[in-house]
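FW: tagging you since you asked about this chain on Friday. Here's the raw sequence from the shared folder, copied in full. Didn't touch anything.
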Amino acid sequence: MVNQQLLDYIKQQLGQNVSKEQIKSSLMSGGWLVSDVEEGFNAIAPQSAPVPRAPSLSPSPISNIQPIQSTQPIQPIQHIQPISNLINPTIQQPSFTKQEKPKSGKKAILFLVILIILAGGGYFALKYFDNSKTNNAPAPTPAVNQEANQTPATTPTPAPVVENPDITRVKAILVDIGQSFMTGNYALFAQHASIATAKFLTASSFTGKVSTFTVNSVIQSGANIVANATTTGGPSNQPPTQNLVFIKENGDWKLDMAATMQYDTDEANAKKGTGDPNGLPDLVVTGVTVSPAHPIVNDKNVQILIFVKNIGTKKADNVSFEVKILGFAADVPYQAGGYVLAPGETMTETYNPYKENDFFKISDTAGQKTIQIVLNKDRDMVESNYNNNVFTQVMQVYSN
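HL: got it, structure written out here
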């Protein structure tokens, strides 16, 4: 069944014209599986709305065109007096008679005055009309920079991605696990461990603290969720960066050691070559190192480093071996297996004899011991040579 939260997110983004590839990329970065994302798109595809048809445009009949309404009221033109009224009415039109020749100069002067008055009246009328038009004209509207006011086109961007709720839950659990690692409160760690892992932690009385705990990534791998974290200030034999695999148990995510070991093995095997398909593997122990150089009996810090190499021509798919401490009569044999070695590859196994035997409440005595390692004891894997599968080395254990 498709996650409803995932469907809502895809619908929202498609509604904002975000491309399918952008939505898909955002969801996968949030921890969603490709199959979940594709299923979400497939569920939405049949519901896509048809593209609306553009309405047909037809010209409006001319009879429907309305007259343009003026936004400015028409100012009435004030009555202008005839130009003749501007002339002084008391001036009499001269009568021209032939007997009054001496008055011809006065007539010329009078005619000139009339012309001046007429010209002045015409100028006055012209200025009147010009001022009337100027005063009634609307104020000019400042030009608007439409380009500056336009909102620039933006490319739609995806909204914050909806994270896979299982990833979110594991991230919250990792906060508690980090606190337990840094404080040494492994009861808190056990609350988020699988049943099998919690039993192992309780029986082994696991101790130790780290200075920092940093989560590098959280991804979904098949049915499980894998976190990668880095620690500092932890025990010397603890790798600084490690995977933590969570399985679904009783409705919640739990850290499981067995699933973690299997994931690490599968990841390492994927990087190995197969070698000669017609060849055979050949396992040997190339050396053993005891630390410290002066081991004290029953000291849990005593370590035995075992180096195993595949000197054959084909990949060894199932490397297994058994370690015994001869001279430690009650010693419980240490067994390891499931490793893969490419041709020419060497692996290192760390064995803490007194820590492992303390789990069974077994004590040893000081003296000379012999470390015995048997490779491929049950011959579950075909090798080119079985005669080099047993290795022994003497170890002296001191009382103080």
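FW: The domain at 165-270 is CATH 3.10.450 (Nuclear Transport Factor 2; Chain: A,).
HL: agreed, and The chain has a mean pLDDT of 78.
FW: great, closing this out.
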